[in-house]
Amino acid sequence: MSVFRRARDGKLAARFTAQEADLMTVLASEAEELAGLATDGRAASADPALRRLLPDAYPDDPEASAEFRRFTAEGLAERKAQAARAMSQSLAHEPGRPAQVRLDEAEASAWLRTITGIRLVLASRLGIEHDEDTGQTPRSRSCSSSSTTGWRPCRTRS
Q1: Rounded distance, CA 36 to CA 30, Å?
Q2: How many CB atoms lie within 10 A of CB 155?
Q3: pLDDT tens, position by position, 6-34
Q4: Are 124 and 98 in contact (CB under 8 A)?
């Protein structure tokens, strides 16, 4: 990947190798899928990564958190999904071919929001919750291997 640089027209421009573009496209697609799953209470309660995408507003007050989630989760998840779709659209390229992107301010913001969500999910999958964590994946978790990146929803082993 080349460094993002501001072009004369004010847009941010970068080039991605074919592998980078393909991976970023898959990650954006999976981010969109996970955003939708994050509003499913049962899926989110079983998967810490989904809880990281839409964390409790009031960690010490489950009732207030549930009430807040009831009014905000769907809208927040939809905005996360929209950002992931915007990232995918701006990366549109032929699979296996390099990609060049030019992002306006709104697209750059969508990229940042999506990459932040990807980072949170990956950190959760790696067992990184705090700065001092070493990234040990808990042995009691089993992630779906159908994903290129292995960061789709996990199930707790019975």
Answers
A1: 10
A2: 12
A3: 999 999 999 999 999 999 999 999 999 99
A4: no
Residue 69 near residue 57, CB atoms below 8 Å: yes
Q: Residue 55: how many CB atoms within 10 A of its CB?
A: 12
Contacts of 47-51 with C-beta under 8 Å, sequence gap 24+, read 47/153, 47/154, 47/155, 48/124, 49/120, 49/121, 49/124, 49/125, 49/151, 49/153, 49/154, 50/153
Contact 21, 98 (CB under 8 A): yes
Dist. CA 104–CA 67, nearest whole Å: 36
47-102 per-position pLDDT tens digit: 888 888 888 899 999 999 889 988 999 999 999 999 999 999 999 888 889 999 99
The first and second tokens of residue 52, run together, are 């990281």
Non-local (6+) Cβ contacts of 73 within 8 A are: 38, 39, 54
Pull the structure tokens for residue 42: 């049962």
> For residue 122, which of 79, 154, 87, 74 has the smallest C-alpha distance?
154
pLDDT digits (tens, 9 = 90+) for 106-121: 999 999 999 999 999 9
Of 1, 3, 7, nearest in space to 102 by CA: 7
Is the C-alpha dihedral spanning 56, 61, 63, 68 positive or negative?
negative
